[in-house]
Amino acid sequence: MKLLFDQNLSPRLPAMLSQEFPGSAHIRSFGMATAPDPAVWTFAAAGGFTVVSKDSDFAQRALLLSHPPKVLWLRIGNCPTADIALLMVKHRPAIVAFLADPALALLALA
Fold first, then answer.
1. Model confidence band, residue 99 (pLDDT cutoffs 50, 70, 90)
2. pTM over 0.85
3. Which of 30, 79, 91, 94 is the most buried (most CB within 10 A)?
4. CB under 8 Å to 17, separation ≥6 — which residues?
């Protein structure tokens, strides 16, 4: 259940969600804070990560290229990091089902 949090999300999220989503990381952990989307995409695919982002570019990429990597698109506006963590915990069953389904490339949460 390795999630890779994009630069538009707090680097605190992997630690906040370590119980629910072990093995997750932020792209800053890999020195990729300013990496372009194609580089993040390639890195995530090679590392077995699912990209978590608010960026619609990753959602479009998932629809066009399928997976890997899968994309978890957070369709929420600006909000506290704690609210994002709560959203992900609330939708954990849907996220687990999404990650287990080999046919799905994109899950949008709001």
1. very high
2. yes
3. 91
4. 3, 24, 85, 88, 89
Please name which of 57, 54, 93, 95 lies closest in space to residue 75, comparing C-alpha atoms: 54
pLDDT score of 77: 85
Terminal Cα distance for the chain, rounded:
20
* Whole-number average pLDDT of the chain: 95
| Backbone dihedral angles phi then psi of residue 38, each to the nearest 5 degrees | -60, -35
Looking at residue 62, the DSSP 8-state letter turns out to be H
Give burial (CB, 10 Å; 0-12/13-18/19+) of 90: exposed
For residue 50, the surrounding DSSP H or E stretch is strand 50-53
Q: Assign 96 to helix, strand or coil.
A: helix
Helix (H, G, I), strand (E, B) or coil at 53: strand
